[in-house]
Design goal:
Its cofactor is Mg(2+). By secondary structure, the protein is of the alpha/beta class. It is built from 16 helices and eight strands.
Amino acid sequence: MNAGLDARLARADARLRRDYPGADGGRQPVHTVYVPADRIRRGLAAAWGEQAVAALRAFAPGAAELAAATGLEEADVAAAQPRVLAKLDREPVEDLRVDAEDGYGVRTDDEEDAHVGAAAAALGADVAAGTAPPGVGIRMKGMAAEGRRRGTRSLALFLSGLLEAAGGLPEGLRITLPKITSVEQVEAAAWALARMERLFGLAEGRLRFELQVETPQCVIGPGGTADLARMVRAGGGRVTALHFGTYDYTAACGVTAAHQAMDHPAADYAKAVMQVAAAGTGVRLSDGAANVLPVGAAEQVHAAWRLHTRLVVRALERAFYQGWDMHPHQLPTRYLATYVFYRRAFGPAAARLADYLGSVGGTVLDEPATAQALAAVLTRGLQCGALDEPEVAAACGAGADDLAALAQRRVG
């Protein structure tokens, strides 16, 4: 009987392993910073860090002022603030995207060629010098008829320039595909990347891409189906992440400009579909951006910081561990909110995981899947700098490698 069951379910088992491989255990950035192609310069990440530190000194130099400005508890801020300052000095940007799409606008071909080429050269030089962020890449124009030729041209120029300046493609290379409206566009993007791999002599599958979810058609297709799940699979293993485009999506749903926001119910619905479509696939999720920038007078900066902090914490609580940042002054609250979140989670998660790993009778009986979630939150905290390995190991009895292995979950 057992052999018969195995035979009957062999195809289903293979499909499950193929479509739901689980997380790869690699590091996910806490944010993506978008900078228009014509503003990319060498050392840009470090310059953003310096501007972020200057904003903290000008508008909230102490823990009490920063707590008042962000709405967080002063004790939490005081514990996290030294780590935030160290992060802004050491690694202020985790993932940098050259924006050749909405944030850049429509230029002549000669202008875009020049800007994309210069951006690739600058980033490539930083990669070669070891000063680039862990993740770098480009948001090209999408596969819609009016933009796809320009998009693939800019992508080819970017890859060529990066290869020349860096002597190879960085491990953290990322390509963002915006304005998706059909499964066929994802298939076409995968086909185009395969052609570029042959053009540049790259290994098959080296070029992978993120899907930007910013159209209603991307969430619910014309037949009433959740096409986003099909899009993930249509990439043939090349799709790495789903990024939510807050303002295009809510505008397309008829939300007026005054109410377009990351926490609008229309946005929450789309992100819930994204979450289910990506679950178990290893495809990562990213929330969008807060468009209220922390600039101007102190009260304006504080109001924007409070909003940004609330939205970052809200996203983290809903398992969106990445978002977008558009201005250097958003970095302090990105890291502060993220670090406070992980440090608050640290004690309870480590205690429960210690009980689970030691089979100690605690007050909560955790399932293996919950233990994996506990390991995942500690791993994410370690990766972004919110936690240190010695304190985590002392609290739960497991090191970073063991926690990362436990956090990798497969379906079935």
